[in-house]
């Protein structure tokens, strides 16, 4: 069980999904969760589940054990300043904000607070996130607590801060890249004969199967691809045509462009 009181500042896509995911996990009482945003009417569903809602970040942070920052990057430093007067050294501050490093967060929040960064993806809405965590906090107990919270919402790993930009690209942006593959596969599927709905279902189940093969076996994708590519066959013809058109190269260049965007700020 999670006995701590959790405040989520910014109940949008991620903040809201975390609250719903935690409730679903049954590891925490809904009344131990507070979610803030300015348009409170958009938090009605969470309120119906027993979550406390407010537009007062300071009040919501006062008695929280854990404060999760799920606002936009351009707001994060201002909002830390806003809640700083009520922060204390027993509290854990977890920033989900992309592109704002631990050093900057520590500078603004002060070194007393226990600061973590967590980088999830939108599959957190179905408790299937890949969440990467970084921190300077040394306490195993606190690290395990933060891991435990995000483990309710998918898979979680602690990494060093210098890898957080790469983690943001590969996991958080990565889900959009994977979905764009799916959209393209569907469009191709429609052109060769399926209706959109059927093409979507076939594509989604096929991607799920590919994911399962890799996660279950830990084998390199190319080993699984080798099992599909009959010599002089149909698959290798398609794969090679995709590579001639720059499939892998364009994906890698896209990842690097996203990475450079974070690095440049
Ligand atoms: N989306 C993603 O896939 C990922 C996002 N991130 C990071 O997570 C953060 C949140 O992203 P996301 O959930 O997509 O963004 P959203 O825009 O969906 O959520 C941000 C929320 O903050 C609320 N908000 C704005 N101002 C305030 C304020 N002063 N006080 C309290 N709440 C406020 C907004 O609601 P209202 O306007 O009603 O106040 C909104 O619901 C970003 O920093 C992003 O970098 C990280 C990994 C993945
Ligand atoms: O695109 C963005 O900036 C955010 C951070 C990672 C995913 N979405």
Automatic annotation (TrEMBL):
MF term (GO), any: pyrroline-5-carboxylate reductase activity
A GO BP annotation: L-proline biosynthetic process
Keywords: Amino-acid biosynthesis, Cytoplasm, NADP, Oxidoreductase, Proline biosynthesis
Record bears the keyword Cytoplasm: yes
Role of this protein: Catalyzes the reduction of 1-pyrroline-5-carboxylate (PCA) to L-proline.
Similarity section: Belongs to the pyrroline-5-carboxylate reductase family.
The name this protein goes by in its record: Pyrroline-5-carboxylate reductase
